[in-house]
Amino acid sequence: MNGMPSSKSMYTEWSVFRVVDMCEASRVSVLHKMPQINGTLLVTSCVKPLAQMLNNTNVINNTTEDNDFLQNDRDVLWIMEVICYGLSLPLTSGEQHDCVRDCVSLYSEWLYALSPQLAKSKVIPFPIRDDPNLYCRKILEHIYNIFIARPVAGNEAVVLDAIQRQAVLCHRLLRTIENIVQDEHNLMDRQFWDSLLIFLLAINDTLLSPPVETNDIGTQISDRIINVLFEIWLIACCRCFPSPSFWKTFQHLSSCWRHRPALIDTWNRVNYSLTLRLVKHMSPNSYDINANSPTLQKNYLNVILDEMNEETLKQCWYRFLHCIGNPVDLCSPEIISKTDRFYHSACASENVVDPRQHPCLNNLPHIFYKSMKGLSVLVDTFLGIPVTFEEIDVEMYKSSTSLAMSSAISSIQPPPTPPERRKPAFPALTINKTQNKGMSSKHTVTTKAEPNVNPLPTIIYPTVPEYILPPTRPKSTSILDILGDWLFQAALFGSDLKENEMIRSNSSQSFSQINELQRKQSAASDRLLIETLPLLGPESFEAGQAEAIGALCRLFCFKKADEEISTMLNKQPHPPFQKVKNYLTQFHLALQFGLSLKETFRRQFIASILINSTKIFEVDLPGGSLLIPHYLKALEIYLIPKEKPNTKPDVEIRRSCIKLLLSLFSYPLHFNELPIKETLSETPSTTFQSLRPRLINLQIQALCGETDSINVQMILGGFLLMVSDVSNNELFNQNENSDSSLESMRSNSLNGHNLSFGQTSCESSLMSSDIQYLDDGKGIPDTARGLFGRALSQVGQVLARCRDKSQYDSQVSLAALEVLSVIGRINLSNDSKYGHHMNCLLECKDTVKQIYAFIESQCEKPAPFHSKDLHSTIVAAYQCLAVWFHQHSHLLREKDCISMLLEVIELGISGSKSKKNGFVFKADKPLKPASMRVREAAESLLTLLMNHFNNCPPTPCPPESIIGSTLLDECNLLKYLSIGKNLSPESACDRFKYFVSDNLIMIAILDILEPNDKQTVCIIRSPFGKYCWSFTFRQLSRKHNMKTYNEVVARPLPKPDSMTNILGQTVRQFPESLDKIKSTKFDSFVPNLTKMIAESPEFRSDRDIMTSLIERVENHMKYEKQRAHKIPLANRSLECKEPMPSTETEAARLILSHFSFLSFETLQDAPMGQMIPSLIALNSKSADFVSNLKILDSISNRTSDTAFVYYIKQGVKSADEILADTKQQIISNNQFKSFVLSLGSVVDVKNHSGWTGHISTAWKIIQDCNVKDHEKNCVFDAKRHVLYWADVSHELVFVLPSSFSSLSEDSDNQSLDGDYKQRVTADFHLDTRSVSSLSDDGSNTSKNITENESTRNSLRRKFRNQLLHNVGCDVKVLIFWMESTDDHYDLPINSLLLTTGTGVESNLSLWKDFVLILIHPLKNGLFRIILQGSGGRTPITLPLIDGMVVSKHILGTFVRLAALNVCRRRRLDTESFQPPHVKRRLKIQEIVNKYRLLLPESEFYNSLFTSK
User: Fold this and answer.
1) At CB < 8 A and 24+ separation, what contacts does 4-11 make?
2) Average pLDDT over residues 1105-1113
3) Is the CB of residue 1443 less than 8 Å from the CB of residue 1425?
4) How many Cβ atoms sit within 10 Å of the Cβ of residue 1436?
5) How far apart are CA 178 and CA 112, in angstroms?
6) Using CA atoms, how far apart are residues 443 and 402, in angstroms rounded to an integer?
7) What is the enclosing helix (H) or strand (E) of 1502?
């Protein structure tokens, strides 16, 4: 195509056929020259017998003698002269119509002589059969008469009836010609093809070149004759390619028909069909757009295109594209009306003085729009963008006269082949009619006194879809070479740019000439033009301009990544192409012109720019930053509206504005004080930094007026980008001012300390209520603290709106809570001059109060409003509170904050607050939580409050800083205590006694101690972690043992005189005064033994035993008394001595008694055996007990997620090459290495006690001295090192895979998991509590379980054998560093997913669910973000949003938090997900059910006094 000439130069040496004159000369019969003859009678007498022969089916067999006179050439030529005269007869009377109809029938029958297969059953004279081409050429000359308009006298009904009769005859002839031409075995020679093309061009020029009139045969059949012309011309290109003279004639005549909408409709359809086939030839393996369209499959045009070879297809495509000349001429009525027919019409009409005055020109805006729409479709087809329609509706913008005529005709008699029932001639593009109801209006029959005025066309805005473009698409510059001149001329129509300010090209010269022609009109003519054509100002063609500029925006925004589109020098062999085309400059000028329009009613142009150029700042076009001020003006039109957007187009336009806004936030701080120059001026008008207040104001105003859910979520992501970027910039500048080196910053990133997200400094310069936000940009918060407060206020308002039932949106609520969580992690600078601690404290308190109110309002909603999404938002709110209280430890010192926190925790666990029920004790409250997920989230928050808040450092939280994450087990303890060496796990467990309290807490007590050993240890395994305590046996507390005495006080000597009457005295244990005191209820605290014996038969048997024992004791006491009387008094006064200390201690008894676990209530079963006792013993000698402990210890008390990072070099499509490049680039590419190191802290897998990216190495320490130190900064493949980040609730690991995962590795984990599955499958007697986990004390097992909870419990039973699996978060997060954005269309996702095994996947088939985060470094130093989910969907993964442009300072942090939120959002969406503490609880309950010792109370107590 590069060698093709331009439309103006390729036919210069060829002449134009005068086809109308040729047909006019040959259509005259000899009868036309005879004056005063009865033509009707003559024709009827000659033609009617022949017509009757056609209607008689047996004519050939019975009356062959009747057509003997047609057996020679002379007879045939004579009758053809009569038929030629008959075809020109008027159609006013019925007799004349029958006569003309018979003539048409004869010629229609005889034309089939060209097709032998179709002519078998036809009555055709022998001479015509013998030489069909000669006679059929003569027939074409004669039937030209039937297409000539007949003057009809009479009323409008008579005129319409005559036109309708003529149209039916024309349709019949055209249908006959089509059938013959479509026959592959026809006998048409070159001369007949030429005659046929001349005939078709002549009838089209005769009927279409005059202006459109209401009562006109050309208006009635215009679409039909144009379709036949284009179709037969395409067939001629395949079988007998027309000569250049024919092409030039075709182009010359078509330029005179451009005021006919049917021409543009057919032109669009043919161009689209040819372009589809051309794209398929250019890239056979690319995506075939609309290949499955029913219109394309069933239409005859496919057969025609299949016959074309590649060279013919190219020639036809280019020539048909230019057959109507420059479509931008449709904007100029003086050019369209500058034809002989328009001048003739103006001279013949009394109402039309100037050709430009004709009413049919009012339809030019619609025609121009349709032509630009056709070019836009061609651009989308080349780019690979799926077209949203299948046929261009011919009736959509038809002129009012045509519609009036159609309605009038339909009221008289329905046509035999109405347009809506005809077989379509070409595959086309149909706009959805439901979307165009507002674009058409009801038309009525108008008179000449009141000309009809058509409404202006309105474009249909796309829904801003995310296109997946084929990588084999052509370059944008090659498309601009073909269509660029027209698109630029259309986009710049009406601008005031001088010719010397435009690029020197043919397009600019012709455009300037048009404008000059418009300026040279006389004042009177201009006044007349304005009065008669009010719609033909520049604004009338806005819809077509909008389509043109939209196509240009898509060309530049979807250019290939490696394409330099700035200045292209084309040196083609043809002279017009030897020039420099600076397309980028023209594009900038077009955008500047469109975005600077001041007319408020010309918003279609601006809206088209905004919708189609959302990626303009993502592709980093040279000089694109010069357009930022112009874009901001346009964004302010839609983002600061006076009315709320209610229609779908407004919502889509605002979404595009928000996308543009997100791509602009990073520019001011990145370029800082760099000046922005005007496009045509050398003086700078503004700086990037000065644009920041306008961007912030736009962000705030956009959120206030937005109602769409997706748009609100995107704006909330913009708040995160806004606050984070400013806080990082201030912290970076503060570090520079304090002379901190870059090396120290790099070391901080290596240690996992991010510059912006850590412990929040609670100082703010302004309270949100003190900031005044004005639309002019004044008073906008400019500091990190001001934006911090303003963002909290704005997001809080969104959360408050979500509390309303009518405005509740679960996705918006989740997004607002995620934004609050991220803002809570932002670190503000600590400069003392900004110290306003109280202001920040109030902002933080207001934020947590908003979250409190949100939780309370959601929990208290009526039952019909409760759903999975509602409960997910409540769970997210509890998680958000956890982040805020962990990062803002000062809130723990506020009494009202702690009080409200405990209230919402109580509300989540029990379903109500005690204060509202009259201060009911929590132990007495019935547990009716909103759902089990809500209760589990509240329990988790309560645990964090008691164990972690203000006890562990801010993020990142290493495993050793988290309480309850100890890795000590029985073997390690005995090894550290030097009790036994090389003990097996079974032997180590034998030295411990195991108890379970409340069916939740497992206590392992070291009971076998060495003699005189004063210490023991205890391992506590609970749902919220694993703890190890040490105990020391003491008689007194440490405080009393600290007191020492220097002297030993001797015991006083006994006084013998005081013992004289000791045996005769009555000893009282209590004074007599106590007998006078009345007894109280406390005195009866100890149960009455007599009452207990009477009620229990077991106690009666025990009483008999005790009675016998008492008798034996009394007898023994009597014996002692008798013996005492025999002993002398001196011996009875011996001094008592301290007994020897015991060398054996019962550690289990002492520990349990100190914690009040030993009582009758803790050991008794409930009635009917529905509950497990509060304290039970476990049989640690049972088989598989040790393996179950290992499984319990392997369940972390935090969620664990993994993200995978890859480096994609340009053009690489193999998974093996990607893995090799990733390993290489982490060493050689400093930019990529800096990003990877900013994701987390580098940890050694073998020495790391947390999550490592794979279950085989997680939560254990492996001693290995073979690891080399120099590998630490190079390999992060989860085998040697990983990048680790964690907070109090989550662990996140980033892995750079180096090999494919093996499904058969990690035998340790498989043995545990397989053994666990086997044992759980065999156990069908799980306790109800172990499944439902409804209460901690087992007292409310069967209470208040709703249908939703029972469904969730069944899901838990289904997944109870997958406690180790990450059920609910099987989504894979893949992060790609892209050198070229075009490569993400061909990523080997299925192969790369095999490198993402972590050992915790619940189902390998779920690996196909993934989220891709693609990072593309731009040349300006910023980074473009592309998000893609499985199935082609585009997820919203805050803080990242698709199309966002971020700086390097926050890139790592945003990617890390986005990966965390993806996994967290997936867990919220999965109702069967089990939090870590629930998994541990279920495992403990399973161990209780399997290894419980069913001991009577006596045996249980006896076991406490004996060793194992």
Assistant:
1) 4/314, 4/315, 4/318, 5/574, 5/576, 6/574, 6/576, 6/577, 7/251, 7/322, 7/325, 7/326, 8/506, 8/576, 9/574, 9/575, 9/576, 10/244, 11/244, 11/247, 11/248, 11/251
2) 87
3) yes
4) 23
5) 11
6) 10
7) helix 1497-1504
Q: pLDDT tens across 938-964, in order?
A: 999 998 888 877 777 777 777 777 777
- Find which of 473-482, 838-847, 1141-1150, 1154-1163 is predicted with most confidence, using mean pLDDT: 473-482
- Write down the pTM of the prediction: 0.79
φ/ψ bin of 1473: left (φ > 0), alpha (ψ from -120 to 50), beta (otherwise): beta
CB 692 within 8 A of CB 632: no
Task: Look at residues 978, 982, 967, 1034 and name the one whose alpha carbon lies nearest to residue 1006.
Answer: 978
Question: Quick check: 199 pLDDT over 90?
Answer: yes
Query: How far, in Å, CA of 319 to CA of 1088, rounded?
Result: 113
Residues 766-775 have pLDDT tens digits of 223 333 344 4
Residue where the block lists tokens 């900004």: 834
Axis crossing angle, helix 310-321 with helix 217-239, rounded to the nearest 10: 150
Q: Is the pLDDT higher at 240 or at 504?
A: 240
Q: What is the pLDDT of residue 573?
A: 42
| Beta carbons within 8 Å of 307's beta carbon, 6+ residues apart | 238, 239
Q: Is the pLDDT of residue 395 over 70?
A: no
Q: What's the average model confidence in pLDDT over 840-847?
A: 84
Phi, psi of 1472 (to 5 degrees): -85, 0
- DSSP letters along 140-188, please? HHHHGGGGSPPP--S-HHHHHHHHHHHHHHHHHHHHHHHHHHH-TT---
Mean pLDDT taken over the chain: 75
Residue 739 has pLDDT above 50, yes or no: no
What length does the chain have? Answer: 1508
The 3-state secondary structure of 183-216, one letter per residue: CCCCCCCHHHHHHHHHHHHHHHHHHHCCCCCCCC
CB-CB contact of 457 with 439 (8 Å): yes
Burial of 398 (0-12, 13-18, 19+ CB in 10 A): buried
Residue 1424 has pLDDT above 80, yes or no: yes
Q: Could you give phi then psi for residue 685, rounded to 5 degrees? A: -100, -25
| Greatest CA separation for the chain | 180
Residue carrying the six token digits 């995978």: 1204
Instruction: Tell me which residue of 1295, 1275, 1130, 1128 sits closest to 1201, measured CA to CA.
Output: 1295
Q: Give 1409's contacts (C-beta < 8 A, 6+ positions apart).
A: 1370, 1371, 1372, 1430
Residue 1213 pLDDT more than 60?
yes
Helices vs strands, H then E, count in the chain = 55, 18
The Cα 924–Cα 813 span in angstroms is: 34
Beta bridge partners of 1417: 1423
In angstroms, the CA 1001 to CA 1484 distance is: 8
Query: What interhelical angle do 709-737 and 810-824 show, nearest 10?
Result: 10
Contact call for residues 728 and 828 (beta carbons, < 8 A)? no
Residue type, 1339: S
Q: Are 1254 and 1306 in contact (CB under 8 A)?
A: yes
Phi, psi of 803 (to 5 degrees): -70, -20
Cβ of 727: how many Cβ atoms within 10 Å?
Answer: 27
Token pair for 1101: 């048997």
- Sequence-distant (≥ 6) Cβ neighbours of residue 241 within 8 angstroms: 312, 315
- Compute the chain's Rg from CA coordinates: 46
Note the Cα 728 to chain centre separation in Å: 28
List CB contacts of 150: < 8 A, sequence separation 6 or more. Answer: 90, 91, 92, 162, 166, 217
Distances (CA, A) of 1450 to 722, 1201, 1222, 1229, 1411: 11, 21, 22, 19, 20
